[in-house]
């Protein structure tokens, strides 16, 4: 349910309205509708339209194009969490005979399977799906353009294969599985494969004249898992909450966090742009914040879903023209406006409910060689290790229940941290993936690799 818009300050609401008004006017689109989510609830909805007195609300459907891919990725992650498949499995293991089976499921999710970007001609987005009844028609004679796993190359046929994999494993149509396993549990009853009134019509706007041409709305057939869906700002706002927090009825929070992590090789231009791709989600570093989500386009429609997880703010932008507005930039701006005008209020500091004395004695300063680090206790028996000054390797660590911890991110992800004790029970040093951390730089009482010069520290004589 949409919460009162008064939860945002009047100046913030006006700034949001101004941004979409400029986008609709300068982008020359028949209509543009947007929503903002904060703290897990929709707090703003806005619309601009070329028809006087008609502003689309949060229940009007627009075609969302490739945001559909994120829904397909959710279905695949559900299969993985159930143990039906592993992301490292080659597609051939579960869907043999495609000619693209050497790519793994993870590579297809991250668009690094080496497949072509599009299906063979005629252009699939503007022709009936009945022209491509079989996977062979979607893939063509040469489905692979690059070695699997070597580069990120966006592929619509790749997500067609993932949809076919869902159908093969579940024994039901992709859309039926999606409705049963994702849409219904999340209450997304206005997200459908075919448009349901009220819905917007798709238009092309002439680049040099203020006139329009109706675009066809084709059923994409086999290509549906790559871009078929119609949805609303209301439904996509709820979907954004799910992609931020998870929902145990669909995917747990740990799995949606995995979807948001980079999973594809990054090229030089992507590094410069601050862009990456996860498991069905686009990742962008913009305006000093990390954004995740997905954009979509089909003839007559543009769409974007943008989430700033750290700010707990998300935006949805939908419009019904083939080109003109830039929904990804608009979505990022809507997030920025709210995040900067009304910064997130942190939760109150609270002490830990309890602290293990054997862990508490590890807190404080440690040295890896001459690099100074601090170890801090975190909730749930975890710890965090970070450099005391400047940049450097840092990570949180999850307690394993046996006196060791496992790294959660960065260089130390998956690595084991343990405290090594002397026979009398006192702590000698920390061992982190063979790195020795000591209480003093190059502590001669600890087993520092290579030993410590017996002459000790000295100046220049």
Task: Tell me what you see in this structure.
By secondary structure, this protein is of the alpha+beta class. The protein has 13 helices and 19 strands. The strands form four sheets. The protein has an eight-stranded antiparallel beta sheet with strand order 12-13-14-15-16-17-18-19, with no helix packed on it. A seven-stranded antiparallel beta sheet has the order 2-1-11-10-9-8-7, with helices on both faces. It has a two-stranded antiparallel ribbon with strand order 3-6. α1 packs antiparallel against α12, α2 packs parallel to α6 and α2 crosses α7 (174-186). The longest helix has 18 residues, at 10-27. It is globular, with a radius of gyration of 26 Å. The relative contact order is 0.12. Residues 1-5 have low confidence and may be disordered.
Quickly describe the structure.
The protein is α+β, with helices and mostly antiparallel strands.
Name the structural class: alpha+beta
Low-confidence blocks of residues: 1-5
Overall 3D shape: globular
Largest sheet, if any? 8 strands, antiparallel
Average pLDDT, rounded to a whole number, is: 94
Distance between the termini: 76 Å
Strand numbers in spatial order across the main sheet: 12-13-14-15-16-17-18-19
- How many strands? 19
Radius of gyration: 26 Å
Helical segment count: 13
Percent helix: 25-40%
Q: Beta fraction of the residues?
A: 15-25%
